[in-house]
């Protein structure tokens, strides 16, 4: 087989070094943004998140207080308690690569006025009203995310979806060699329907497929 194109070779090389960190984080669509939850969830999915679990709740003042006290949030105020308990919120457990930071970027600065100036396309700029009614909440970091997820989804056992090391080892052990060979062959052949071609090639060259002798058959 001749050498693959340089561009194709670069794409194939990416499979040798997967650097993927899949995280989970908590998102809350606050009462002021609940009516827009379909639109906001579309934004979430468009940005590559998986919604693992979700629920709509109206928190009591006691629940709001417990949630913020448990997470030692310095922004906790009595006005916040009244606001959170004033209507229905949508709580979502999200997952994707670098989920915590990506979600914080999408929602924008906590202060809606600042968000409208500096990040006009952010969710807080689009759906927030003021510093208190800022539409959405996001976990500040991984440790906070773990606590917040445990608070709202206490009955859900969350195993790590995948770690970078685990994914790298899994791909290196069972996937990379065969897949890279298939991708090289794909670049060489350049079929009109590359996805179907690659799927067929992988089935044919699967090193773990059963060894079936077609000449053997059973007569009942």
UniProtKB/TrEMBL annotation:
Single Gene Ontology BP annotation:
GTP biosynthetic process
Q: Name one GO cellular component term.
A: cilium
Name of the protein in question = Nucleoside diphosphate kinase homolog 5
Please verify whether the record's keywords include Hydrolase. Answer: yes
Q: Which InterPro entries match?
A: Dpy-30_motif, NDK-like_dom, NDK-like_dom_sf, Nucleoside_diP_kinase
UniProt-annotated location(s) = Cell projection, Cilium
Predominant location category: other
Q: Which family does it belong to?
A: Belongs to the NDK family.
Superkingdom field: Eukaryota
Domain Nucleoside diphosphate kinase-like: residue ranges: 22-160
Q: Where is the signal peptide?
A: none
